[in-house]
Amino acid sequence: MKARLLIALTAAGAGALALPADAQTAPARTREIIVYGNDPCPRSTDDDVVVCARRSEKERYRLPEALRPSGPPQLSQSWAARSKALATVGSTGPGTCSGVGPGGVDGCALKEIQQGVAERAEQDAGDTPPE
Known about the structure:
This is Secreted protein. Keywords: Signal. By secondary structure, the protein is an alpha+beta fold. It folds into two domains: 27-68, no CATH class; 72-131, no CATH class. It has four helices and two strands; from the N terminus they run ααββαα. The chain has helices at 2-17, 21-24, 79-86, 106-127; strands at 29-36, 48-55. The chain has a two-stranded parallel sheet with strand order 1-2. 1% of the residues are buried.
């Protein structure tokens, strides 16, 4: 009795495992590739399916969008640039833009000019995309 049951279970299991020939072959591997400019996209083969995303030539050497810094430039400013402003704290005398000491007021116009030039350079850097 046990032998008949074992034979019946084995036959039923073998019938369930019989699949069509197409389903028995391994699925094709899919490769996703980013190509830039006029670079050719690799051809697909019987084993591989190649999907190409085309980007402009300007994007070739840029950081991926997920890794690019975001937000205002003041947040990504280096500590060296931030500390440069602290170097003149407490200075007095000519060219310092302070009311203390002789000629302290002379530096105010120079400071405003330098600040305007820096703001303009920062604005221009933000307006033009990198090459």
